[in-house]
Design brief:
277 residues; alpha/beta; Diaminopimelate Epimerase, Chain A, domain 1; 2 domains; six-stranded mixed β-sheet; four-stranded parallel β-sheet; 14 strands; globular
Length: 277
């Protein structure tokens, strides 16, 4: 079975491709650049690739032992793409639609009518599993992904995920460092094992339009819009104005270039841009 290789830096990704092109890629998106696979390129955030979503029905690929699947990050969207390449994707079109909707519009939309009960269960189960099983910081994540696919979809993980999401607001409030107009900055310390903070738009009783999260552990900055892809500022455009074409994401949420570390001062620059300063 093919390996799953995680590469966050586009320079390293191009080095690997020069040695051997991956059989497929799943969201191997680096800013405005998409790394293509030999037989499948599953991407949906970069302009020109929106008709080729990472979520897919099972693909009938002739995968060899020495082939590999290249990804730039791991989330549920990417995992579903990997499952499709491996031929083990087992969920309904409604699940695919719901996961894609939340990926593009934010976890705060998880309980909307656009997301089926089944899709919500899968998303929360994934969250519950990954809270205690984070992806290792290494290139070959094959074993991690294979185990995740087998074990994440359980009632126990669903319960853990649901409890976590309901309690995440208090965590976000505890790391709020600055608010400007309709935007707020959260400083996530290295020891804090929490994700999805970009979905917490109501903090201290105030509803914000934009959330900026500085993740100290990864040196990354992520900006998101409460309206997702339905209005407000274009997060990709805002981030690229500050950090260049290496910044990536989509209209509702975008981040700093992969493989480069940034500071809280960079995050403040994003906050100021979103607040119109």
């Amino acid at each position: 079975m093919s390996k799953v290789i995680l590469v966050r830096d586009i320079k390293r990704a191009k080095e690997l491709v020069a040695e051997k092109q991956p059989i497929a890629t799943a969201e191997a998106e680096y800013g405005s650049t998409v790394i293509e696979g030999q037989t499948a390129t599953l991407a949906h955030h970069v302009q020109g690739w929106t008709s080729a979503p990472s979520l897919s029905e099972n693909l009938n690929l002739n995968v060899q032992e020495d082939d590999y699947i290249l990804v730039s990050h791991i989330d549920l969207d990417t995992v579903c793409g990997i499952m499709a390449v491996k031929g083990v994707y087992k969920y309904s079109p409604e699940v695919k639609k719901g996961i894609n909707y939340v990926d593009c519009n934010g976890q705060h939309r998880m309980f909307s009518s656009e997301v089926s009960e089944e899709a919500r269960r899968i998303i929360l189960s994934y969250i519950g599993y990954t809270l205690n099983n984070r992806c290792p910081q290494e290139e070959d994540i094959t074993e991690y992904v294979n185990t995740l696919i087998l074990k994440f979809d359980t009632e126990e993980n669903f319960s853990i995920g649901l409890k976590f999401v309901k309690g995440r607001t208090a965590v976000a409030e505890s790391i709020l460092v600055r608010a400007e107009g309709g935007a707020v900055l959260l400083h996530q310390p290295s020891e804090m094992n929490v994700f999805g903070l970009n979905s917490e738009y109501i903090l201290g009783g105030v509803e914000y339009d934009y959330i900026v999260v500085f993740n100290e552990k990864f040196g990354s900055v992520t900006a998101s819009s409460r309206l997702g892809s339905n209005g407000g500022l274009d997060m990709v455009a805002v981030m690229r104005e500050i950090f260049g074409e290496g910044a990536g994401g989509h209209y509702g949420i975008a981040g700093t270039p992969r493989g480069t570390t940034f500071s809280i001062e960079d995050a403040k620059s994003v906050l100021n841009a979103l607040a119109g300063k």
